[in-house]
TrEMBL record:
Protein name: BHLH domain-containing protein
Top-level taxonomic group: Eukaryota
One Pfam family hit: HLH
Localization: Nucleus
Taxonomic source organism: Corchorus olitorius
GO biological process entries: endosperm development
Length: 154
């Protein structure tokens, strides 16, 4: 015989009580234990179904993966693919930065040329024309920046 300290009841050794009130010999003390068990089974089944769907979705996103692949292969390929995407992103960002720098250098050099021409005794009309060229280069550089930003995000 064992004493259930929580309740203070002595139970025969063949019918020990479990922590949640049911007996350990497989018979439930009440219907609540059985429904809790069924709920646990249903919850676990839904969790497995959700995991299956997530692995299937991940598998579909990975190029060059055979139709039948185990879970460890799917995860390994996903990690490899993400790393390659990160490297591609870094390369594209560097290229974009180089293009922006070259566009800025072109705009700066054109403004130096036009301002130098304006100080060489040119008429006011030529100076205003030089400013409009400078503004045109700045607009072109701005449009190029927008184009680069939009093309890199696609």
């Amino acid at each position: 015989m064992e004493v259930d300290r929580a309740v203070g009841v002595v139970a025969p050794a063949s019918q020990k009580r479990s922590r949640n009130g049911g007996s350990k010999n497989g018979k439930a003390a009440n219907c609540g234990d059985q429904s809790e068990h069924e709920m646990h089974i249903w919850t676990e089944r839904e969790r497995r179904k959700k995991m299956r769907n997530m692995f299937s979705n991940l598998h579909a996103l990975l190029p060059q993966l055979p139709a039948k692949a185990d879970k460890s292969t799917i995860v390994d390929e996903a990690v490899t693919y993400i790393k390659s995407l990160q490297q591609t992103l870094q390369t594209l960002q560097k290229q974009k930065l180089e293009k922006l720098r070259s566009a800025t250098l072109m705009a700066d050099s054109s403004s130096i040329i036009t301002s130098h021409q304006g100080t060489g005794g040119a008429s006011t009309d030529q100076f205003s024309e030089a400013l409009s060229v400078e503004e045109t280069f700045k607009l072109a550089a701005g449009e190029m920046n927008l184009w680069l930003l939009s093309s890199s995000s696609s």
